[in-house]
Every structure is written in structure tokens, then in C-alpha cells.
Amino acid sequence: MHRTVRAIAFLTLAACGLALSSSQSGKPILLRTKPRVHEIRLEVELFQQAPVDIDTGAVYVDGLGRRTTYVKSQPTYQGTALAMAVPVLVRTSWCDTDFSTVVIKGNVDGKEYLADPAKAFVRQSGTTEALVQFEMPLERGYAENILARTTYQVQRWELEVDEAAAASATWPREWPSGMDRFLKAEPGVDPTHAGLKAFADSATKGGARSVGPYLAVRNAALAIVRGWKLPNSGTSVYGQKGGLRGLNFTVNGPWGFDAGGGTPVELAATCTAAVRALGVPCRVVYCLGRKSRSNDQRSGTSGSEFRMICEFFLPNIGWIPFDPMMMRQHTAGGMAAIRGFANIPDIQDALPLAFLTVPKGYEKADRVALWGWKRGLQVDEPTAVTRIGFDDSGRGNGKVPSMPAPVSDEVP
């Protein structure tokens, strides 16, 4: 299978078979430019090391504010085997993934398992989604340290959107096949909420249908963003040893449209629900990236963080992105271009991974973190640690300086 997916990466126009949706000037409405090739090393590590008070020897679930050191606890993961999956996206508007040279390794307490990509890499039919599946035996009946690592290459572009041409698109009589999924409710995204639907529709004077879908989406997303109260600007949760642990969802207390706010993850989910409520396919693309200088740089924490890019679909044009957090910086009114909507200056820095927070057929572990496992393990929750490792190494420029972005999720 890994040979089959070779054609996915570093696509040329002939290989893509892309419909060239263009503006009146002949320029593609969604244009990929300035390609960069990167090698990605993505890791999920499960281990158990409890913070122990240096003075008393007491174990704490969190050692904040105490003089602590980390020591190995008793075996955490008990069972005969571990089945886990890490999501990847074969293609988005700004990224193509090359799995022709993928390396998939598992490690249990120092013993390494090299997986066959033809079995471990699984495409989901009819979508751009895929899973890297790890099946690792626990020969002793338990494990103290489990590491799943995937190494592959991507080519990412900057994405130029002709906003005037996109704004001229009209409402279709029906959406293309496969779009139903991105119109329905899913965990955290509820487009059936009557109040949210009314709010999204009223964001456009005369109602959403008085303008084209592009402007209706823009107005609704901007209205959500402007009224959103952000209690915490962090996209991510960091665990023991400062490792990236998961997405920053509100654990206690309400969030969303009724609450009028929430974390950046919840803002993206609410914007997506509002767009779906208008009848336009929309989704959250969960990404990984490096922290910006303006973001939290607490000492000892990982330099990586999750990032959410929303996308909405227009027929014959493709998936148009917007970044709700970047849109919060917008203050201009009228028809002025909105920073973070359609044209996102640093979208090339975001590595897209998934459309779902937990892969289908799997369950979340200690917290939502995109990857998932199949239960059957006994877990000592207080000492269990999840660490998501992310290394993004540049490999130079792509060979094709510009090309149209794909207009659908269909992949060769």
C-alpha cells in the first residue's frame, strides 16, 4: 500500500487531475505557492513517572510549586497487547503528504518493532484521512514505556485565495457527494442549536441567503469571533516533564455559544457549528505547529502546540481556510479583507493531522489528543503520562513553484 500512495505526494497538475477553477483573470481561485518540503517525525509516548516531593517522598499528581523530581512508578499499562492509532491527512488545500518512504516503529520497554507500512498505514475510503496503526505486544503482560513513531515527508505551500472570485460563488442546489458529513453534528459541533443558527444567519443583513455562501460564512465567523470571551489563549495542555499532552478543552464549566466563550479549540468548534448551521460544509483541521513568540513560553514546556484551522467548502473552488484566533486581531469593518480569513499568512507552518479529535474505532486515553487506543489495558491514571513529540525538519524548496489547490477530497 505504501507504494500505492507514492503518487499522492509532490503532485503535478497532470498527476492531480485537478479541475482548474479560475477567476476571470485566469488565475486559480485557490493557488498554492512557495512550496517547502519537510520531514516530519511524529511520536506518541506513554510512560509513568510520578512527581515526587524531594523532601517528603510523597507522590503528587501535579508537582507545581513543589521541589520535585521524577521517579519510575509501578507498571502502568497492563494487558497482552496495545492497539493505538495516530491520524494523518493525505492532502489538504495547503499540504500533500508523501508516505512512499514512511517509517513506522513501535517500542515497548526498549524492544523495537518495525511495522510493515502496507499493513500499518490505512487509508479511509473516500476521504483524505488515514491512520497509522500500531499493534504492539506486551510480552510481560505489562509495559512501563511505550513509544510509537512515524517518520514521513510533506510538501506545504502558502495558499493564495482570490477573495473577489470566491465571493461571486452562488449557493448550489445541492452539495457534492461526501459533503453530508461536514453538515451534520459531531461531538463538540452542534449545527442544530437554534440560537446559534439564528445568530449566524443574522450576522448578514437580510440573512445569509441574501449574499453568496462565501460572504455568509465570513460574516458568521466574524460575528462569533468578535463576541467570544477567551478565558485561556492556550491551545494545548502540557503534562509532566513539560511534554505536549493534549488539546485544551474545558474540563469544568460550560463553553460554546451559550457560554459566550471558551478556549481556542472550542472557538474553532463553535465557528464550524455556526457555518454548518447556515448549510455550508465546514470542518476543523487539527494541526501541529511550533509556538509563536507571542504564545505561552513557560519554562520547561514543549516548543510545539496544537493549532486549529477551519475550512469551508465551495463547489468548483475547494476548501477555503480561516483561522478564528487570527481573526480576533481584525478590527476593520465593511468589506475590508479580514486577517486570518481565506488568506492566512503563516498557514504553511501548520501541519494538518486530523478532522476528528479521536480516530474512528478508537478511544481517547487520558485526554483528547487526536490519537486514540483500543481499550483492554489497565491504566494507573495518576502516574500515566502522555507525551506527543513533533519534529519538523526543512528539506528545501519544492520543484513546482505554484499550482492550483485541489477542488475536492478525492485523492488518486
Question: Would you kindly provide a written description of the structure presented here, covering whatever features stand out?
Answer:
With 412 residues, the protein is mainly beta. The chain folds into two domains: 4-158 and 354-404, no CATH class; 168-352, C8orf32 fold. Helices cover 13% and strands 35% of the residues. The chain is built from seven helices and 20 strands. The chain has helices at residues 13-16, 117-120, 163-167, 194-202, 213-226, 264-277, 324-327; strands spanning 30-53, 68-72, 77-78, 81-89, 91-92, 95-108, 111-114, 121-123, 129-137, 142-143, 145-161, 236-238, 244-247, 282-290, 304-314, 318-322, 351-354, 372-373, 384-397, 402-404. Strands 1, 2, 5, 6, 7, 11, 19 and 20 form an eight-stranded antiparallel beta sheet that branches. A four-stranded antiparallel beta sheet has the order 8-9-4-18. The protein has a four-stranded antiparallel beta sheet with strand order 16-15-14-17. The longest helix has 14 residues, at 213-226. It is globular, with a radius of gyration of 22 Å. It starts with 12 loop residues before the first helix and ends in an 8-residue tail after the last strand. The relative contact order is 0.22. Residues 1-20 and 68-72 have low confidence and may be disordered.
